[in-house]
Amino acid sequence: MGIELIFVGILVGAISGFFGVGGGTILVPILLYFGFDIKAAIGISVVQMLFSSLYGSYLNYKKGTLQVSSTIFFGFGGLVGSSFSGFIIHHLSSKTLTWIFLAVVLYAIYRFFHAPHESNQKPIENRALFFGIGVLIGMFATSVGIGGALLLTPVMVGFLHYNIKSAVSTALFFVVFSSFAGVVSMARYGYIDFKDGLIIGISSLIGVYLGIHFAHKTEAKKHKNLILVLNFIILALIVNKLIRG
Fold first, then answer.
1. What does pTM read for this prediction?
2. How many domains are contained in the chain?
């Protein structure tokens, strides 16, 4: 299983870097097909997300697409919200968590489909609003094994008028905060498999580098369409899992 997890880590890292997500959106379904329980898959996922988001955010900052300034308050909110993830996982059944995961993906697809890839309006900057959004996304997204970028990107593009490149970079930076809090919270409840999490997390760094390299070379409209394709693939995997039980 170790070799398989290394290749999974590289794949998930590439997806994380290219799409600006933590990686849990694709890693959790893959681990479910490998036979992991949903709660074990979520625990491994948040460890991987911490690795990929830290390295990916560093690369995006070096390339100039990550502007911290007031958007760091998304992260502060995510840090607070994600600290409740262990409590939420402990008190919800695996089936309930899977349905929540499906709902998150459906919402992301809906919002992102209707959002423009480039906005003509000035981006909204409100630190209190950013903090509140971060708390809500961190609380629910991390509880189902994703860092929150899947939700934050469509919110930034669809509601706050950010362009796709800035939104993707900021969303991945948000995952640094939410995944760190998620690891701490879930470890307290015994839901972290550090061995498999570290194998996937460390190997994902190779993929992150490749993913970000190609993301910066991809035109904005095409980038958005590819993110939608990813969401539909994730949706299909989760629906199939629910049907098969």
1. 0.79
2. 1
